[in-house]
Amino acid sequence: MVNDLIFPDILLYLLDMVGIIACAIAGTLLAQHKGFDIAGCILVSMVNAIGGGTLRDMALDRHPLFWMTDLNYVIVITVTSLILQIFFHLYHKIDNALKLFDAIGLAAFSVIGFKVALTQGMSPLIAIMMGVWTAIIGGMLRDIICNEIPLVLQREIYITASIAGSVTYLCLQYVGVSAGINEFIMLFVIFAVRMLALRFDWHLPSIRLVA
Amino acid sequence: MVNDLIFPDILLYLLDMVGIIACAIAGTLLAQHKGFDIAGCILVSMVNAIGGGTLRDMALDRHPLFWMTDLNYVIVITVTSLILQIFFHLYHKIDNALKLFDAIGLAAFSVIGFKVALTQGMSPLIAIMMGVWTAIIGGMLRDIICNEIPLVLQREIYITASIAGSVTYLCLQYVGVSAGINEFIMLFVIFAVRMLALRFDWHLPSIRLVA
Amino acid sequence: MVNDLIFPDILLYLLDMVGIIACAIAGTLLAQHKGFDIAGCILVSMVNAIGGGTLRDMALDRHPLFWMTDLNYVIVITVTSLILQIFFHLYHKIDNALKLFDAIGLAAFSVIGFKVALTQGMSPLIAIMMGVWTAIIGGMLRDIICNEIPLVLQREIYITASIAGSVTYLCLQYVGVSAGINEFIMLFVIFAVRMLALRFDWHLPSIRLVA
């Protein structure tokens, strides 16, 4: 996914890995809760971490898929899942860290998906969708495999944070902000919206003007 | 999906949009019932409306995907879903209209999927499958995301209507009917089978010759 | 999938078909249990039998998909599912045969997925994943559609058997065993591990070093 690493691509790659680790942890925890075995837990953590990017690349016809050329993804996920399965009792101490990692992942995945779509020549509307897609499809597939109603579709600010970041990027691009700085701002906006939503328990309502 | 609009392609495009609207409505209704937020409802309505065509295009290696070049799809779905969410109380008045729209969508989606596969040089058997695929996968994915057993696989005439239309097309093509007229007939056959099935409560049995 | 049939490709093709039949039977049985109609049962049996290979080919950008050029797959699945639906009462006599077929399918699907990935120039790690993917995704999709928690992710030796076969292949390749013989050995290892696991009720534990 990252071919020629120039700053801020290095930063983005590192934040991407933080998100991958957060997803691997979240996937393993749910799979353990469902009583899956070692291999099942690793598989669910992979789906959670790279499922969204995989479907995005397949939809945009980008081959080979990003995790086929950069084996770091598969290795990081497997190691994370195994460590967590062995030292599961440590989990209660990492709950808050997980929320932080998860928000970093949401921001990094959105920026990557958004950038990739623009690079492929897609319109801004499709790029916004691909940012959301990359960020949430993995978690959705995890919940579907584990026979749960997807968490990200319920009353949580995930999709909204991703869209807010993309729209900010497009506005700032319009007024002439350079791409490098703009990506930083987009990352920060998504991360901030998500953390504020967690802190103040924001969520999107169901709308209904007339009862 | 529709590049050079000549009649009857314009009609097919309009019927396609009717089907898209029906799917967006059905997706939003189920998502609301499950308590998803605004963004979640829009996402489920998108999956319902364009999920089948997306997987068909990915399977047939047609890139870019149809909704990436024609933004009408994404816009129509989003607007439909938002209007429905705001004026939800009107739903009870549109129940019968929804069934009609749904039947139109089944017919239009089947014809489009069938045509696309033939255009890509697939055999008739694969074309029949792609017609079914385009027509029902979206609703199946909607039900999977919402943790329901897919409605289209149960005792309802959906798949059968789509196959009946495709087989009619192939038979009439064999006796020399031109493609334009043949598409009309295929559309009508699928629509008629579906409406008659609803009217007279037809459904496919489970078969078992020997108890 | 099989273009120039030379031995042992013919054997592999036959074993593949045995696996396809086993998957079609398993899919039809679960779909019947869920009360799906004739068409729904056929669709679930197709997802079970060719779902894994379809996603593998889409991920590796191999087009057209294997079942689009070789219609035997679709025909064998449909006929198998129909025969089973008509003579359902015979099922109790085929339970043990099904487990045998299923193990043959696991072995054949793993070898095919593993070979295909290597042929596409993928690294060994990705090839191992593609072997697992081809062998288990179909059954996972079947369970997801039928709203069940995927069996293959639970305490059953499926993924492990597939990985054991792939690792054996890679080790023997390293010491110079020719590809033809090596494939036989890989097939046998997977089949043997699966049958032994069934016979002696082996399963992978959940690991946790510290309580």
Automatic annotation (TrEMBL), chains A, B, C:
Residues 14-87, 100-173 form the Glycine transporter domain. It is found in: Cell membrane. The keyword Membrane applies. InterPro entries: Gly_transporter. Keywords: Cell membrane, Membrane, Transmembrane, Transmembrane helix. The chain crosses the membrane at residues 12-31, 38-59, 71-88, 100-118, 124-145, 157-175, 181-198. It comes from the Bacteria. It is a multi-pass membrane protein. The keyword Membrane applies. One of its GO terms (cellular component) is plasma membrane. Pfam families: Gly_transporter. Belongs to the UPF0126 family. This is Glycine transporter domain-containing protein.
